[in-house]
Amino acid sequence: MATLYEGYTLCGVGPVQNSSNIGILGVEQGRDIDYVLVTDSSRSITVYKVSDQKPTGSWSVKQGQIISCPAVFNTQSQEYVVVTDDRVVRVWKEDDVNLEKAFKATVSADVLRVLSATDSEPVVLFCCGAVRFLDSLLASPQQPIEDVLTEDEIIRWSTIVKAEHQLVVLFSTEQRGEHCLYVQRFNPNTLVKHRIETEPGLSAPISFSATCRGSNIHLLYLYLNGSVYESVLPFRSSSTGAEGVQALSCSLCLSLPLGEEKLMSGAAVVLDEAHVAVIGFPHPSAGACKDYLCIWNTHFQTLQASKEMAGRIYSQLWCYSGKLYVPHGKMLSVIPFDCQKSSLAAAMGKLKQTSRNVLWFYLLLSLMNVFLTGFFLLFLQNVKSALTVDQLVEHIKTSAVEDVQAEVGEFIRRAPQADLQLAAGRVALELVSRSQTDANFYPQCAFLQLLETRYLCYSVCPELLSLAMVKKDFHLCQIAFQIFSDIPEAVTCACLKAILSTPDLEMETVNLDTDSVIFMKELTQAHSRSDEEGGQLNGFCPPALESDVSDTPSNKLQRDPLSLDMSCPVGLHKGALLNEVLQTAYSDRSLLPHLKDLTVPQVIVFLQYLRFLYFKYSHDAHKQIRALRTPSISQIIDWVCLLLDAHFTVLAVAPEAKRLVFDLHKFVRSQVKLYAELGKIEGSLQVLKNSKQSEDFGMYAIQVIELF
């Protein structure tokens, strides 16, 4: 059995820049299982944290330069390696910003790929078939590179496998219609050439995949006619390559169904000993369609799982740590999967000694069971078919709220993801349109379900947030702020004004995200560690603790620290919504004019809340609370600056703002003092960092370090 779980988008696929018509050059494993390294077909290399679906680093080559092969991560040195313009090897670290300033070396021959395996030194494969370990090549970049291949022999595919702390490089070649496989082993260093033998009339293999199981290398290759062959090579071989070209026997392990259209490309990746993932070949029951990702059981020739992929298929497929990476359309999708041994396989394993007739009997029973199950499911599907998007839109125009919400929920559950991605915006627009004309119609649950699909954005349904503010549906506003990344600054300010103008008592009755409310509750109740230790933390202390009060207008402002009111100026629910606003993307220039629409009382309350957050964050109270979404201290400071810029004149003359502005001034001055003191000891810290400690300490030693 196998399962394909719900996928998600990791990144976009840029326009094709090379002649090979490939969307992405490669996806390689990063520094651990949660990171991948994506090299696109233009000029950039990006590291993504898969669980967060966010980039953690990105580098680009200059205009006119070309990335020749996918970048890889060297797990031994914790460095990245890539080849540009065929011969320039570049090596850089995570914290390097400019790729041009990183280490680079020009080698004497064209490089095909840099191959990397976990906890092993990368191997450089040249177009001529020669291989070098990366360190030995960089030690002497201009060393001569021997020609392993003949003049018209071209490498079509390459990979590296590792087992028992040994590396083996595999690459296939094509020469005048003949296909060969080269196996480069190390320790001892041997190169063996095999001739791939298949049935007569087959064209070149379009995809290869290699895995190491036990003491053998299993090589799987796919042909355009749907045939999947497997060859087995010993991981360790006594052959030295002097015997000449050796025949590589193979066996047919899977025959994929073909549609009516002529296939031009495809890809296959081995998942385990019994399952293979295939893309580019039609689904057996979906007609002539190449837009499917399928998992097949090679032991029993059965389709185990499938998922329709929207957009153009690039016939590229990678597999790392239980996840498939598939570029399609304008995106690179990550699709988790799971493969399990079937009960029939277990039964067949127990019946090895029985007769062939008994084995066929069990196989026939299994196939009948699959056929009857599929027929029954098809019957149920025909009895109760899901609404089309056109039918659903017509129902929205006339049906009651309860019926509409039930039908929208059923549509979301049953519709294929590709169809849902296109239909979500249309359904949301129709729901908003009726809600604006019919005061008694407001399907909140349907809106929330559509938002949870993450196929909506502000530009797809721009009236949704405005409708939510009119209905004072702050729960919907909160979810939209979490999902939408393209909210205009004018709408952000309108939502902020609506939140600030709503009384706390009314806001407390709103149903909000539990995690955000718990964060606010624990933040207001948290005692900062600096209070318990009686000192200041992170350079922050309340205004009353400042010794320098030369600019204080009167002694009345020098109040006792215990009397300083640092309680939250708003309710928990209002604070949770304000936190979502703080985390919204914006442009300073676009946001400033709209902030001026806030009234003076609203500005003061908002600044008081920001001061409260700054106080808690400066004392690390927020680090004691586990929460999924919280504003950062830099976001808090940015909003304080924006509000002061937008309302500087009003705050300077308003009597009710005098105490607040004075406290903010004290906060800023405490940070300035902290950085000034750190600057004084910067030289001493640098001396300590650069000082060379003696290696021979013995059992006791006194070391004198001069600081100047």
Automatic annotation (TrEMBL):
It comes from the Eukaryota. GO terms for cellular component: nucleolus. The keyword Hydrolase does not apply. One of its GO terms (biological process) is maturation of SSU-rRNA. The chain crosses the membrane at residues 358-380. InterPro entries: NOL11, Nol11_C, NOL11_N, WD40_repeat_dom_sf. Residues 403-708 form the Nucleolar protein 11 C-terminal domain. Pfam families: Nol11_C, NOL11_N. It is found in: Nucleus, Nucleolus. Keywords: Activator, Membrane, Nucleus, rRNA processing, Transcription, Transcription regulation, Transmembrane, Transmembrane helix. Coiled coil: none annotated. Its main location: nucleus. This is Nucleolar protein 11. It comes from Cyprinus carpio.
